Amino acid sequence: MDRPTLYIANKNYSSWSFRPWMALTGAGVDFEEVLIPFDYPGGNPDIKAISPTGRVPLLKHGVLKIWESLAIIEYVAELYPDAGLLPRDRAGRALARSVSMEMLSSFRALRSACPMNIRRPKGRIALPDGVDADIGRIETIWHDLLQQSGGPFLFGAFSGADGMFAPVVNRFDIYDLVSRNDTLAYMETMKAHPAWRKWEEAARAEPWIVPEDEV
């Protein structure tokens, strides 16, 4: 089978890139990584040259191109059904898709006020309306899934759903947004994962600074 190539952007800031990278790496999928850094304000033409949307992440497999983080995870789950990117039971897969899609389409207040930033020193900021509601909903999702699965990850073993929520773990951590014990325990589990540590190490070594994401 041809080795897929995952195109990503800056590891310090790119939450959309972090999701499929964390999912695929955490599941042990072999892929080639190509990083194309942001080039503000006009965008990097190298990204536009490979991506039909002009954005990353993008997965290239042979002549096929797949964009959007959840679509990438779903495609690779079909390529490697034993990798554990989706739960094995049908009900679990449906629930994983539901919460992953909610993560993809929701929580705009949190994402806007608290951009992902691996290097940011931990500290609180003033939160606009809507952020507390987003935090509460995410904590409820995590609590319910962890109670049902027994943990330590959302569906027991690491899965693509954990990858989808990885940027939120960073946001909750660096902006000091949460205090529930089960939330903090899940966050520590994620941050201790070898894939997370590999991404974090690379992010901290990057030279690029994006002022828009330095809150």
TrEMBL record:
Give the protein's recorded name: Glutathione S-transferase family protein
Output the Pfam families linked to this UniProt entry: GST_C_2 (PF13410), GST_N_2 (PF13409)
Organism field: Rhizobium leguminosarum bv. viciae
Indicate the secretion signal residues. none
Xref: InterPro entries: Glutathione-S-Trfase_C_sf, Glutathione_S-Trfase, Glutathione_S-Trfase_N, Thioredoxin-like_sf
What are the alphabetically sorted keywords of the record? Transferase
Q: Which GO terms describe its molecular function?
A: glutathione transferase activity; maleylacetoacetate isomerase activity
Upper classification of the organism: Bacteria, Pseudomonadati, Pseudomonadota, Alphaproteobacteria, Hyphomicrobiales
Kindly state a single biological-process term from the GO annotations of this entry: glutathione metabolic process
> Can you give the residue ranges of the GST N-terminal domain?
4-84
State whether keyword Transferase applies: yes
